[in-house]
Design goal:
Order of helices and strands of chain B: HEEHEHEHEHHHEEHEHEHEHHHEE
Protein name (chain B): 3-ketoacyl-CoA thiolase 2, peroxisomal
Number of strands of chain B: 12
Helix content of chain A: under 10%
Distance between the termini of chain B: 20 Å
Strand content of chain A: over 45%
Organism (chain B): Melia azedarach
Number of helices of chain A: 0
Shape of chain B: globular
Protein name (chain A): Peroxisome biogenesis protein 7
Number of helices of chain B: 13
Oligomer: heterodimer
Order of helices and strands of chain A: EEEEEEEEEEEEEEEEEEEEEEEEEEEE
Radius of gyration of chain A: 18 Å
Largest interface: A-B, 53 and 37 residues
Structural class of chain A: mainly beta
Chain lengths: ~325, ~450
């Protein structure tokens, strides 16, 4: 299965929603603690399974997350550690990029998510405890959501309701927001420890997965959020990202500081479906392709990007 | 810098699940510069392009001297198939090899060097590839590996072959007939002349190793070697040699293929060993059963820079991490590994506890048992596929043979077996040891793309 060696430590990997063979990777020098960052746009050639670099953009600080535009096939949003949000046009050469650099967050931007239904706006979440709503054509943010008491690690749009999103924070809460409302519409004290990631189920718009430093992933139903409908244990360290399958209702992928990528079926007792231990450092980025069923990608601090088909060994040549 | 400190703090909190309603860092976990070093429980795998790696390690079967499968085989015919195999199995162009270094002990130096050079021609190497021999007695094969690794590290060349060769059928252990009278004053110089068997008796006597302990070690060696042979473990490392054998009675010559070790006796037991008479001293403890066998054999190891191996898409069997040779009292030369192993392990930046597997040459059971005890090694980690008491000890070849055995075993054991050590004692009072790391998994991929430019300067317009 194809691999790509990045010069910096991997932080995020995202499949393009337009081209089945295109992948964006966000990396940061020195484990994202100090130094530059780089965005790689990779192409998966179908004949020989290799990843070739189409273009790369350098940044002054680490790139913690990326989001492809849902409206334009070449636009890419980068969340960088210096607090800026950058918009790249991957069709343009590096010297013409970024086409926008938005400076509003006062600390590291940790996630970016493009609205999949309205397709005109995107969210960023930051260690400055806020979530910001942006549109591609405006130079300033549309709104700032400030309620969390600590770093907001992740904010993701609901796949069906174009105004609803969820945020995950180090203050141990998940919050559900409706951009038409003043404040958050729901606060779920989901874990005893920091929550690093959240994602909505793509088939049931009431289900959310949360991933925490307490090593567990919990599945919540927003209609009855007192108790989780499932708790997925199996990771040995904090769970860094969680992602629901775009193709199967009950399937989700996660990656963790325990250096593994895991697949789960939250509806069965024996929830852990697969465990991949191909990374030799913290696994911090995972994604599932929307266009090819079962195609997974992961990256980590070992500076390697893997793309593989579910059920195969990512390391197999 | 404050920013970096704050980032580190936030990431550390992910690893330290303290109840996070209050974000106060209780300092049970903190960042430290070496936390990701080789000795840490949390393993980082630093892979550098200029690491010296082993991509192939093979040996011949080891045969009994004078009556075994190689008794009528010329030494160059033992070495040539190995030299051929290491380049053929890796699809390497022989002209790319920068040097061939052969460890050899008993044969006259120049004569053997010429035989080895001829062997390179038989193996298809062009005239442009040089060759030399090296003699550090019993660790000559290991010294050859260290020499090639050093030259690659120094940038003298990128690819080299280290080999070892000994035919104890042709060449015997002999003592010099003309001895300098000065040895009467220099006691340690005189001790260099002691027959090896006597040094073994000295070790047994001085450190209290009993006959029973020695015989037990011999039984274990045969048992493990027999199990390894039966399960086909040696098949990966042995290159079959097509040669001839002459019937001693009829003088009839017939072609044979030598591919199986001859010295292993699966039914070796304490009762039979107890019947053997001491070989060197009347009241001694060293017998033919608990000493290494006199054998013929050869080994060859292909080393190169990691970057070259990755470019060629070759699997990385192991990484050369360190080597040390240390002198000890010649009267008890067998204790060499006790001095050499800690020195080599330290040179690799490791602790003895980090080592998962050992190959310690069993020159004599006395010194072998003593070394394991003195270093406090777990016997389950040492010579897991038997040693020289069962396989044989073709002096110059043993070091190279051990590399093939160790790295193949580490490959089989997988991730749990990260570091391995090869060590042996050396006649005239020395020990040598080398540290190897198991080849890492990422290198098994042959489609990892090399990064061409690494521009650390940002082009980002702020």
């Amino acid at each position: 299965m194809p691999v790509f060696k990045t010069p910096f430590n991997g932080y995020s990997v995202k499949f393009s929603p337009f081209y089945e063979s295109r992948i964006a990777v966000g990396t940061a020098q020195n484990f994202g603690i100090l130094g530059n960052g780089r965005v790689h746009v990779l192409d998966l050639s179908p004949a020989t399974p290799t990843l070739t670099e189409l273009v790369a953009f350098d940044t002054a600080d680490g790139v913690y997350d990326l989001a492809w535009s849902e409206s334009h096939d070449s636009l890419l949003i980068a969340a960088t550690a210096d607090g800026s949000v950058k918009i790249y046009d991957t069709a343009l050469p590096p010297n013409a990029n970024p086409i926008r650099s938005l400076h509003e967050h006062t600390r590291e931007v940790h996630s970016a998510d493009y609205n999949p239904t309205r397709r005109d706006s995107f969210l960023t979440s930051s260690w400055d405890d806020t979530v910001k709503l942006w549109t591609v054509d405006r130079p300033t943010s549309v709104r700032t959501f400030k309620e969390h008491a600590y770093c907001v690690y992740n904010a993701t749009w609901n796949p069906r309701h174009s105004d609803v999103f969820c945020s995950a924070s180090g203050d141990c809460t998940l919050r559900i927001w409706d951009v038409r409302e003043m404040g958050s519409t729901m606060i779920i004290p989901a874990h005893e420890f920091e929550i690093l990631a959240c994602d909505w189920n793509k088939y049931d718009d009431c289900l959310i997965a949360s991933a925490s430093v307490d090593k567990s992933i919990k599945i919540w139903d927003v209609r009855s959020y007192r108790v989780p409908i499932a708790v997925l244990n199996g990771h040995g360290y904090a769970v860094r990202k969680v992602k629901f399958s775009p193709h199967r209702r009950n399937l989700l992928a996660s990656c963790s500081y325990d250096m593994t990528v895991c697949l789960w079926d939250f509806m069965v007792d024996d929830a852990l479906v697969g465990r991949y231990d191909h990374h030799t450092e913290f696994a911090v980025g995972v994604d599932m392709s929307v266009l090819v069923e079962g195609l997974l990608a992961s990256t980590g601090w070992d500076e390697v990007v893997y793309v593989w088909q579910q059920g195969m060994d990512p390391r197999a040549v | 810098m404050e920013k970096a400190f704050n980032r580190q703090k936030i990431l550390l909190q992910h690893l330290q699940p303290s109840s996070s309603q209050t974000h106060q860092s209780s300092a049970t976990l903190s960042a430290s510069i070496c936390a990701a070093g080789d000795s840490a429980a949390y393993q980082r795998k630093p892979a550098f392009g200029d690491d010296v790696v082993i991509v192939a390690a093979y040996r011949t079967a080891i045969c009994k001297a004078k009556r075994g499968g190689f008794k009528d085989t010329l030494v160059d015919d033992m070495l040539a198939p190995l030299l051929k195999a290491v380049v053929e199995k890796t699809n390497l162009n022989p002209s790319e090899v920068g040097d061939i270094v052969v460890g050899t002990v008993l044969a006259p130096g120049s004569e053997r060097a010429i035989e080895c050079r001829m062997a390179a021609f038989y193996a298809g190497f062009p005239e442009t590839v040089p060759l030399r021999t090296v003699n550090r007695q019993c660790s000559s094969g290991l010294q050859a590996v260290a020499d090639v690794a050093t030259a690659i590290k120094a940038g003298l060349y990128d690819i080299g072959i280290a080999a070892g060769l000994e035919s104890m059928t042709v060449n015997f252990i002999s003592t010099s007939s003309r001895v300098n009278p000065k040895v009467d004053i220099f006691a340690q110089a005189r001790d260099c002349l002691l027959p090896m068997g006597i040094t073994s008796e000295n070790v047994a006597q001085r450190y209290g190793v009993t006959r029973q302990d020695q015989d037990l070690a011999a039984v274990e060696s045969h048992k493990r070697a027999a199990a390894a042979r039966a399960s086909g473990k040696f098949k990966d490392e042995i290159i079959p040699v097509h040669t001839k054998i002459v019937d001693p009675k009829t003088g009839e010559e017939k072609p044979v293929i030598i591919s199986v070790d001859e010295g292993i006796r699966p039914n070796t037991n304490m009762a039979d060993l107890a019947k053997l008479k001491p070989a060197f001293k009347k009241d001694g403890t060293t017998t033919a059963g608990n000493a290494s066998q006199v054998s013929d054999g050869a080994g060859a190891v292909l080393l190169m820079k990691r970057s070259v191996a990755m470019q060629k898409g070759l699997p990385i069997l192991g990484v050369f991490r360190g080597f040390a040779a240390v002198g000890v009292d010649p009267a008890v030369m067998g204790i060499g590994p006790v001095a050499a192993i800690p020195a080599a392990v330290k040179s690799a930046g490791l602790e003895l506890d980090d080592i998962d597997l050992f190959e310690i040459n069993e020159a004599f059971a006395s010194q072998y048992v003593y070394c394991i005890k003195k270093l406090g090694l777990d016997p389950e980690k040492v010579n897991v596929n038997g040693g020289a008491m069962a396989l044989g000890h073709p002096l110059g070849a043993t070091g190279a043979r051990c590399v093939a055995t160790l790295l193949n075993e580490m490959k089989r054991r997988g991730k749990d077996s990260r570091f391995g050590v090869i060590s042996m004692c050396i006649g005239s009072g020395m020990g040598a040891a080398a540290v190897f790391e198991r080849g890492d998994c990422i290198d098994e991929l042959c489609n990892v793309r090399t990064v061409k430019s690494n521009g650390f300067l940002s082009k980002d317009a702020l």
